[in-house]
């Protein structure tokens, strides 16, 4: 089994003997069993905290090089007729901590019936597609990664004038905004 231990980054001039076509979730995992496009079993033993990108070159312990490819996967692409509905959709998807890929008047996310209903309700046209999913990396250079968390909030309404930096997965009502 190949053991990939180094990510050399994007090296377009390097010829690689293998290729790894990975979906978004697989590209976020530093430790994972994978299969190369040629059918060889391999393991990822990479530095944690970095999502693999299209074109990254991985080196295995035996010197084998593999180029990462973003594999097409089921996604939802919401298209808007102008910038305001697109911006609203991006805001609301981000407020729900959804990983999103943003283009000119479109936003792409992984299938989720609740999110799909929400963007339709905002007036966007929604399509089910097979496409590589390459979400935004975050405002501070973080690479987006799927995550789950839960936490309780106090029973009292939020004071929205204070910093609300703690991650959360709920919406705010207009009554709370006072």
Please, could you describe this protein's structure?
The protein is an alpha+beta fold and 178 residues long. It folds into two domains: 2-70, Urease metallochaperone UreE, N-terminal domain (HSP40/DNAj peptide-binding domain, Sandwich), CATH 2.60.260; 73-131, Alpha-Beta Plaits (2-Layer Sandwich). The protein is built from four helices and ten strands. The chain has helices at residues 24-27, 83-95, 113-121, 174-177; strands spanning 2-10, 18-22, 31-35, 41-45, 56-60, 65-70, 73-79, 101-103, 106-109, 125-131. The strands form two sheets. The chain has a six-stranded mixed beta sheet with strand order 2-6-5-1-4-3. Strand 3 and strand 4 form a beta hairpin. The longest helix is centred in the middle third of the chain and has 13 residues, at 83-95. The protein is elongated, with a radius of gyration of 19 Å. It starts with a strand and ends with a helix.
In short:
With 178 residues, this protein is of the alpha+beta class.
Rg to the nearest angstrom? 19 Å
Helix-strand pattern: EEHEEEEEHEEHEH
What's the CATH H-level superfamily name of the largest domain? Urease metallochaperone UreE, N-terminal domain
As laid out across the biggest beta sheet, the strand order is 2-6-5-1-4-3
Total number of beta strands: 10
Gross morphology is elongated
Which stretches are low in confidence, meaning pLDDT under 50 for 5 or more residues running?
142-178
Largest sheet: 6 strands, mixed
CATH class of the largest domain: Mainly Beta
